[in-house]
Design goal:
26% of the residues lie in helices and 28% in strands. It is of the alpha+beta class. It binds adenosine-5'-triphosphate and magnesium ion. The site of adenosine-5'-triphosphate (ATP) has 16 residues, from strand 11, strand 15, strand 16 and helix 10.
Length: 404
Amino acid sequence: MHRIPVSDAVNQIDQNVRVSGYVHEFRNLGKIRFIILRDQSGTIQVVTRDKIDLNREDVIDVIGKVVRSNIAKAGVEIQAESIRVISRVKKKLPVDPSGIIPSDLDTRIKYRFLDLRKPEVMEIFKTKSDLINSYRQALLKREFIEIHPSLILGAASEGGAEVFQVEYFERKAYLAQSPQLYKQMVVIGGLERVFITLPIYRAEKHNTIYHLNEAMSLDVEMAHIDSHYDVIELLRDVVIEMIGNKIGLRNINVYSYEHVVELLNENNMKIELGDDFSKDHERKIYEILGEEMYFIEGFPTKIRAFYTMPKDDMYSRSFDLFFRGLEIASGAQRIHDVDMLENALLERNLRLEDFDFYLEAFRYGAPTHGGFGMGLERFVMQLLRLNNIREAVLFPRDRTRLLP
Ligand code: ATP
Ligand code: MG
C-alpha cells in the first residue's frame, strides 16, 4: 500500500493508509495501546489491540484506518490493522528527540542523527535549503549562470595564511578559501554574470561562534559595472527577495565607512579612520543604527584584499552587508587593469609569480567587474537567531571536530 506522511491523514478519513516513522510515545493500557507515531511531517496517534511492546524511537510501519477522534491532537487517529517493527532502539538515547531533556551543543552534534529528529532542528535545515533555493532563483531570473570552479588549488588564493594544505600526488595543493580569483577569470572569459554555491575552506584557528572551517559561500561576479554600487543594488534586491517577506524588509540603507566611524566615536566607541571593525564595533553599530540590515561601503583600501578597486588614496569601492549586526557578505568592484593589480600585489608584499595564472587573464582584455561572497550559515544563524553558527551546519568542521 502507498505510504502517506502522517500530516496527510486528516484528509483520509475512513480510508486505509500506511504510515512509517518513529515511536514518539508509547502507552500500554492493558487491552489497548496508544502510540504517537512521528515522521518528518508531524505526529499522529495510532491505536492497537495488538500485544505489541514498543520503546521510544523504535521504527515501525503501520497499516490501518483513519478515524475521527475527540482525544487525539490532530482530531484523527489510525486504528491499526497491522504494525511491523522495522528496527528497535538498542541503547539508552544520548539525546532526547522530544527535546524535553536538553543537551549541550557538543552532544547534539555528536548525535546529530538524533538531534535532527527534533522539529525545530529539522526546521533549520529546511530554512537553509529555502535560502539557497531562493538565492538561485533570484539570480537565474536575472540571467546569471551557476558555475563550479575547482576547490583544489595549486596556489593559496589571496595570499592569506588561513588555508588548508593537502597532498596532491607528488605536490602540495590548497583547499579554496574563496572562489574569488577563479570567478573573476570566468567573467573576464566572457561569462558576464555568474554565481556559485560551493563551500569555502578556512584554516582559522580561533574558536568563535561565527566561524567555521568549512562554510557555504554564495558568490556572485558580474561584468560591465560602473562602481560597487551596481553590486550593492543587486545584492540588496536578491536579499530582499530571499527574506524580505519573512522579516518585513523592504529596503536596505547604505552608510559610508567614514560616517560609521564618526558615529562610533560619538558613541564612546574608539576607532581610528583606517581601522577595520572588530566584532564589538559591529555590535555597537547595530545598536546605534537599529536596522535589521544595512550596507557599509568605502572601506580603507589597506584592510581589503589586493584585487579591490580603490576609490582614492585611502578608500576603496568595497562594501559589507550586515544582518542583525553581523557581517554576512563582503563585496567590491575589482581592479581590471593589470598594472594596477601588480602594484596592489607588490604593496602587500605578495609575489607576482604566485599570481601569474591570474594576472595573465588581465592581459587580453578585461571588462570592469565586481561581485560579492555571502556566508550561507551566517545568514541562517542571524535569520533564526541561533546562538552558534555550528547549529546551522549538519556536521560542522571546526578546530576540534572532524567526525561525525
Ligand atoms: P570575518 O571578518 O567575519 O571573519 P571575512 O571578512 O574574513 O569574515 P570574507 O572573506 O569577507 O570573510 O567572506 C565573505 C563572507 O563569507 C563573510 O561575510 C561570511 O559571511 C562568510 N565567511 C567567511 N569566513 C567564514 C567562516 N570562517 N565561517 C563562516 N562563514 C564565513
Ligand atoms: Mg569580509
